[in-house]
Each structure stands twice: as C-alpha cells, then as structure tokens.
C-alpha cells in the first residue's frame, strides 16, 4: 500500500510539494474509493462569502478525533468518528511521514462541474507551516497552485486515482491552490486531505 519510491520534494518560491503517483495499489485504491462512495455522511455544505450563504460546489465530510472542530469561511464542522478504513490510512501516513494527523477533510467532486476555488489552507488552527497529505481517488483531476504575489506563476499537477500529494513548509503562506472546473468530465473524484489541528 505504501509508496516504494522515495518522495521527490519540489521547492519553488516558498512552495514545498511532493507527490507519489501510486501511493495506494490499484486494488487498495479501488476498495477505498468504493468504501468512501458508500459513506452516508456526504453533504453539500454552505459557507458565508461576503455575507451571502453559498452552497459549496462539492460534497464534504469532516472526520476527526473527538473535540477537533474545523472552522473555515464561517463554518464550524463538528467531528464525525473515523471509519475503520480511514484510520488504517491515517496510521500508514503517520508511519511513513513521521507526522501525526487528527482530522481528514473529505471532498467529493461528483463530476467536472464540482470544483474548488483559489484558497490557501491557512486557518490558524493548522499552524504556520502545516503538512497536508492529500490522497486522490476516482477520476483524475488537474490541481493548480499559484503564487500569492504573482498569479502568473503557476504549478500544475494531475492527481490520479491512488496518488498522494503533500504540501508543506510555507506553501500555504506563499501560494494558493484550486481544483478547476472541467465541464466534459462526467466521473467523480474523492479527495482525502489529512491535517493536524492544534
Ligand atoms: Mn485546500
């Protein structure tokens, strides 16, 4: 199940990212994807944006240790208890990265219309230099980063079924990231982003 290649870190202008294309074996990724699709907790949430209530263009779930709330864009997510398969994945990530995680934000992009706009994972509870571990399942999607101080400077990645992406160091301070809309895409993608909240 674990990436057998060493992680290759890229460092550019404050971004520190690494990816592993085949972190999960195809069988493990398929199984995890089916299990995640079957979770009954998927909801379309609303955030407040400039005082307006807006439906997020995706479904989400926050699984975390007891008492670990996730607050962003005016939302306060109460933690749901970890499913067994995610606890296993968390232990695997913790062992291979030597980093503790206490929550996972799961996003479900039902098709290419579902997306995520430009933002940084810079909530104070994540601390100044969070390590975020993101496992992708299902349809491959483009993932883009841009420098905060120069939007022309971008990094584009394609996140495939079973892959792992890590963002660390000052990535969230210096860069934003997004998952752009891809109108032709009819398949879904589920993304599991492991975090440590203080
Ligand atoms: Mn993010």
Tell me the number of helical segments per DSSP (H or I, 4 or more residues long): 3
Give me the CATH superfamily: Alpha-ketoglutarate-dependent dioxygenase AlkB-like
N-to-C terminal Cα separation, in Å? 29 Å
Number of domains: 1
Shape from CA axes?
Answer: globular
Strand content: 35-45%
Q: Strand count, sense and closure of the main sheet? A: 7 strands, antiparallel
| Name of the CATH architecture | Sandwich
DSSP summary, beta strand count: 15
The hetero compounds bound to this protein are: manganese (II) ion
Which CATH class is shown? Mainly Beta
Low-confidence stretches: none
The third-level CATH topology is Jelly Rolls
Order of helices and strands: EEHEEEEEHEEEEEEHEE
Map the helices and strands.
Elements: E1 8-12, E2 15-20, H1 26-37, E3 46-49, E4 52-55, E5 59-64, E6 70-72, E7 75-77, H2 84-97, E8 103-109, E9 116-119, E10 132-138, E11 141-147, E12 150-159, E13 164-168, H3 171-174, E14 175-179, E15 189-195
Antiparallel strand pairs: 1-2, 2-13, 3-4, 5-8, 6-7, 8-15, 9-14, 10-13, 10-15, 11-12, 11-14
This protein binds manganese (II) ion.
